[in-house]
Specification:
The chain is mostly beta strands. Strands 4, 5, 6, 7, 10, 11 and 12 form a 7-stranded antiparallel beta sheet that branches. A 5-stranded antiparallel beta sheet has the order 1-2-3-9-8, with no helix packed on it. Strand 8 and strand 9 form a beta hairpin.
Amino acid sequence: MVVRDAADARDGAPDLKRVAATRLPGASVRVAISLADPLVVRDLLADAQQGGPPGSICVRLWTTGTPRTTKPDLLACVTAQPDGRTLRSTISQEVPGALPRTVGTATLERPSETSLALRIPAGLFGRARRVSFAAESTLAGCVRLSCVDLAPDDGATRTLRLR
């Protein structure tokens, strides 16, 4: 399943260009993300003087919930290590009334300066027959909605059959 996104990032968020999700043997999922410009790892770190949240590139995944009406079941994100030279991946799960909890990591690949891929383990999908997904990128240090790029736009999702 492929999502193409226009050059529409505002306020400096990494501009998502294409997101493709593929089912792999054993029901694990590979999500490939292409950006309009090269990703500079240190740009995902928030400025020490300004503060704010780190920048990230995330894939929101729904296996049981309904997109647009519920929070994603899983959130697979790529952020910068504190050294600003390497990337890391985490997979979190929303917990009602609490902070999200980390439930694993995705295998992270960096095929080029403008792309990355996450391999999400099948065990995190349980017995789900399909997964709906959307990607988002955020600008480091910014808390405004205009600092986020979505693919697909307008909160839409795409669905990948797992079984």
